[in-house]
Amino acid sequence: MDSILINGGKPLKGNIRISGAKNASLPIMAASLLTDQVLELTNLPILSDIDTMEELLAHLGAKVFRIKENNDSLTLKISCDNMNNHQAPYEIVRKMRASIWVLGPLLAKYGKAVVSLPGGCAIGARQVDLHIAVLEAMGASITISEGYIHANSKTRLKACSFLFPGVSVGATINGILAASLADGTTHLSNCAMEPEIKDLCICLVKMGVIIEGIGTNDLKITGQKTLTGAKHNILPDRIEAGTYMIAGAITKGDITISGIDYEIVENVAQKLMQAGVLVTNMGDNIRVKYNGELKSVDMATHPYPGFSTDLQAQFMSLMTLADSSSVITENIFENRFMHVPELCRMGANISVDGNHAVVRGVGNLSGAEVMASDLRASVSLVLAGLAAKGSTKVRRVYHLDRGYQALEQKLSACGADIARIKGDSV
Ligand code: UD1
Questions:
Q1: Most buried by CB count within 10 Å: which residue of 174, 193, 324, 390?
Q2: 339-350: average pLDDT
Q3: What gap in Å lies between CA 329 and CA 326, rounded to an integer?
Q4: How far is the CA of 173 from the centre of ligand 1 (A)?
Q5: How far is the centre of ligand 1, averaged over its atoms, from the C-alpha of 213 (Å)?
Q6: DSSP-assigned letters across all residues of 65-88
Q7: If phi over 0 gives left and psi between -120 and 50 gives alpha, with beta otherwise, what is residue 378?
Q8: pLDDT at position 72, please?
Q9: How many angstroms from the chain centroid is the CA of residue 63?
Q10: Does 127 contact ligand 1 (Cβ within 6 A)?
Q11: Percentage of the chain surpassing pLDDT 70?
């Protein structure tokens, strides 16, 4: 397994171009199952999670063609005209929870889906009851046995009115995908409103689905008997952008993030500005410049447009170096503070009480060997390492490869001293 070695203390200066959004790419790739025609996707990020979704679709019988791959992005053409398998096996689902997004499309198109339960993960139990409830409301019969979700529908799925009792990105996506082929107009309320869900809806509209309320929490989806192919360019990754914005601040740097709309990272920009960092919306670019101070700021995670749980760990790294105390509250997952002990090994002063972490700013972090439990925790340790005095080794880099395209290259182009050590650790 690879490690990442960082010699910290160098302010980042330069430009970072943002890749396509992983969390939009994966459900949109799953949407290819809804049509017999070709779905062509551009601006996909080059990440192991994309490979895993490609593997899953191919396992189900899809033909996936890699049309173009360069340093920036990947273009895929996916054709699901001759599917021969409706089962997503544990060996693939365990690698990536997003595999559960084949459940809605397979059920809606073929009346049958068998998908492994993803199980818990490092950050929490991560239930699937809402995914199941919305599909049952459309007439599916669903049982769980031997670790698998077995979903069946003898007839075409029927439109329904469904109020999500809690906001769920994953369940909203499965509901939208299934409703796209259901008979009638499905009304989904209290939906998640993440920009990646909006991007999925835009792609589905190109495929022939009629959707009202795109970008809101109240969606009316008129399903079609058949859907067409489409071409779709994936929107940029706001979590990658937010991570690099925080990297600029934590290294006392001056960087420009390009290829992303300010609007979808505005909540991060606001927190950084409250902390005293200069953030300038320059149209196509966002400039993040350290301005001689770093103030402690409280932060709580919420569904979009709130501050993303996927940026909580990175923001905590920043707050370890702020001038007084801040309280960071994690409202989405019950166990998403796994980075805390690792940050403390680097000299941070953080105490956790339930879903609150009290972060008392320290003058410096010091480099250490650290190991992370999940994708965003890993990158928070990279950020801490960039700011720390001395050398930091981050183990288990495979987590990073799931969500950050060319991380070392993007950071070293801005002056970071960062390198990958191949086959270094277990
Ligand atoms: C969540 C985040 C998403 C992030 C992703 C990976 C939110 C709202 N969602 O999406 O931004 O990119 O993790 O870190 O911030 N839940 C249930 N039953 C279900 C589904 C979910 O109880 O069937 C609960 C979850 O346990 C969690 C909350 O609802 O507490 C939100 O979960 P959900 O949005 O579905 O999780 P992801 O889709 O993984």
A1: 174
A2: 97
A3: 10
A4: 11
A5: 21
A6: EEEEE-SS-EEEEEE-SS----EE
A7: alpha
A8: 86
A9: 25
A10: yes
A11: 98
What pLDDT does residue 67 have?
85
- Catalytically active residues are 121
pLDDT recorded at residue 426: 53
- Cβ–Cβ under 8 Å, residues 16 and 392: no
Q: Determine phi and psi for 36, rounding to 5 degrees.
A: -85, -10
Burial 10-47 (b: 16+ CB within 10 A, else e): bbbbbebbbbbbbbbbbbbbbbbbbbebbbbbebbbbb
The verdict on the CB of residue 44 being under 6 Å from ligand 1 is: no
Q: Which of 234, 271, 215 minimizes the C-alpha distance to 18?
A: 234
Tell me which amino acid residue 23 is.
N
Unique residue bearing structure tokens 């959004």: 21
> Does the CB atom of residue 130 touch ligand 1 within 6 A?
yes
Q: What is the mean pLDDT of residues 67-77?
A: 86
C-alpha angle 318-319-324 in degrees, rounded to nearest 5: 145
Note the pLDDT of residue 416.
98
Residue 68 has pLDDT above 90, yes or no: no
Query: CA–CA separation, 347 vs 378, rounded Å?
Result: 17
CB 308 less than 6 A from any atom of ligand 1: yes
Give me the sheet containing 325-329, strands edge to edge. 299-300, 325-329, 356-360, 349-353
Residue nearest to atom 10 of ligand 1 (CA): 169
Distance between CA atoms of residues 2 and 393, nearest Å: 10
CB count within 10 Å of CB 341 equals: 14
User: Which protein residue's CA is at the shortest distance from atom 5 of ligand 1?
Assistant: 310
DSSP state letter for 262: G
